[in-house]
Amino acid sequence: MEELNFYMEDKYLYLSIAKALEKYVDEKAESIVFLFVGTDGNIGDSLAPLCGTLLNVNMGNVFVYGDLNEPITAKEVPFMATYVKIAHPTSTVVVVDAAVGKKWDVGRVKVQKTGIKPGLGVNKDLPMIGDLSIIGVVGEKDDFKNGILPQIRLSSIFQMARNVSMGIETFLNVKFSNKKLKKERVDKSIYNMIESIDNRLIG
Asked: Which domains does the chain possess?
């Protein structure tokens, strides 16, 4: 797996993230989907929804799912994995998520040339999603108990979210200038179709 690692101490972290996206996103890509996976239900997992909320610039043919108002939680991941394949079959999909890791990993932002299985580090069995991923390591796995990271500070999560969102914005403003961001709602017709398929499989 190809990945680039950056640290919160990096003064120009957001520029490093932008350059990593420039390296990994196909220059011929005409549209990009960003999926921000997480919930504001606990501080450690609020990184991605914060990023989705902070995105607020003119961009290109970009579709954004997941923010503080409409988060993509673990239970929505299987649906969204199917949804983006139907609604955006030719788009590059970038997934943003928080993670836990080793002590020396905490504070790293990883840009990976692969999708992810959200929740893998905390023993959740969710489907692979995305073509690329941006992972923020927000705490130690050994400290993770009952879905909560007790020592995490909101200020550090916000600082990381701001850098990730600024990195995304910087990249997109270069790639797709003079076009506007599209913050998306799930298309109800596709939702109903997927739900109908799921019901037939269950039945």
From this structure: 3-202 (3.40.50.1450)
